[in-house]
Amino acid sequence: MQQPTGWKQKLFTIIFEADTKAGRSFDLALLFFIVVSLVVVMLQSIPSVNARHGELLYSIEWIITILFTIEYILRMAVVNRPWKYVTSFYGIVDLLAILPTWFSLVFPFSHFLLAIRALRLIRVFRILKLSQFVHEGNSIVLAMKASARRIGIFLSFVLLLSVILGSLVYVAEAGDNERFSSIPQSIYWAIVTITTVGYGDISPVTVMGKFIASFVMLLGYAIIAVPTGIVTVELSKGLHKEEVKSQACPNCAAYGHDFDAKYCKFCGHQL
User: Fold this and answer.
1) CA distance 110 to 42
2) CA torsion, points 48, 50, 55, 60, in degrees to nearest 10?
3) What is the DSSP letter of 269?
4) Residues with Cβ within 8 Å of residue 214, at least 6 apart in sequence
5) Distance CA 197, CA 93 (A)
6) Averaged pLDDT in 10-residue chunks for the chain of 271 residues
7) What residue spans define the domains of the chain?
8) How far apart are CA 158 and CA 162, in angstroms?
9) How far apart (Å, rounded) are the C-alpha atoms in residues 209 and 176?
10) d(Cα 239, Cα 135) in Å, to the nearest integer?
11) How many CA atoms lie within 13 A of 147 on its CB side?
12) N- to C-terminal Cα distance for the chain?
């Protein structure tokens, strides 16, 4: 496979790379329009503002949508395998950023889909693709993956504990507190309390119920620390791993390659 050449290479460098002056300028412009589009979405959801400035906001939205559409087409044009980009995570996000507005022209009752435009915020992560951001992001993802099994076992233990404590408080409160009307309701209370959320919609009134509640509250603080510690250990292990570079694959537009990689780990194309 050949690298993009001529105008395609120049556009690829501007659109997909952040290590050049032109690439950084493009990313800053893209960031500006993303922020403006999100502000427009929020303002359109305020009835009083939309009533006064609806036409202006509508015009701005269409200008931004057209710019994003042109950008999306250019991204497909400069990669060797457009379908790889279209089906990638960022390709799907880019498409969802423009579809709702176009759908509103064809389907009059699809206005509620415009809220999906808030997904444009995800595109900010594409802009923050400098090495340090990619490296830190990958470190967190890898730490979560490495911790998944232990966190899953821990959550199973918490769920089992919630069932036991919920059943105990149900026995303690039954007959004296109508809010603890069933074991599932009591388990809900246990989960809310053990996670330190504490809505306050249900609370025990008996001495035994309050004693159990006190135990659950203290236990909640200890439980919060466990998954944090698990993930922290995995993050520490990843500190000595090599960084990844910000270069995008010219074939499939994927990021996240090892710092010394010569070929794309997703499609095998030469970087």
Assistant:
1) 17
2) 140
3) -
4) none
5) 33
6) 64 78 85 86 86 91 91 88 84 83 72 63 61 59 78 88 93 87 92 87 91 92 82 68 60 67 76 72
7) 6-135, 140-240
8) 6
9) 10
10) 10
11) 22
12) 11
Helix or strand run (H / E) with residue 245: strand 244-245
> Measured between alpha carbons, how far is 41 from 59 in angstroms, rounded to an integer?
12
Q: Which CATH superfamily is domain 6-135 in?
A: Voltage-gated potassium channels. Chain C (1.20.120.350)
Q: Which token pair is 4?
A: 């993009």
What number of other Cβ atoms are within 10 A of residue 226's Cβ? Answer: 15
Each residue of 236-254: b (16+ CB within 10 Å) or e? eebeeeeebbbbbbbbbbb
Structure tokens belonging to residue 166: 């919920």
Give the other-Cβ count within 10 Å of 166's Cβ.
Answer: 25
CA 258, CA 268: separation in Å to the nearest integer? Answer: 13
Scan for tokens 């408080």, then name that residue. 169
In the block, which residue shows the tokens 């998944």? 148
Q: What is the enclosing helix (H) or strand (E) of 258? A: strand 257-258
C-alpha to C-alpha distance for 15 and 85, rounded to whole angstroms = 13
**CATH architecture, domain 140-240:** Orthogonal Bundle (1.10)
Instruction: Please report which residue ranges of 109-206 form alpha helices under DSSP H.
Output: 124-127, 131-173, 183-194
Q: Answer for the pair 178, 206: CB distance below 8 angstroms, yes or no.
A: no
How far apart CA 137 and CA 254 sit, in angstroms, is 15
**Tokens for 84?**
């790889």
pTM for this model (two decimals): 0.55
Q: Which amino acid is at 243?
A: E
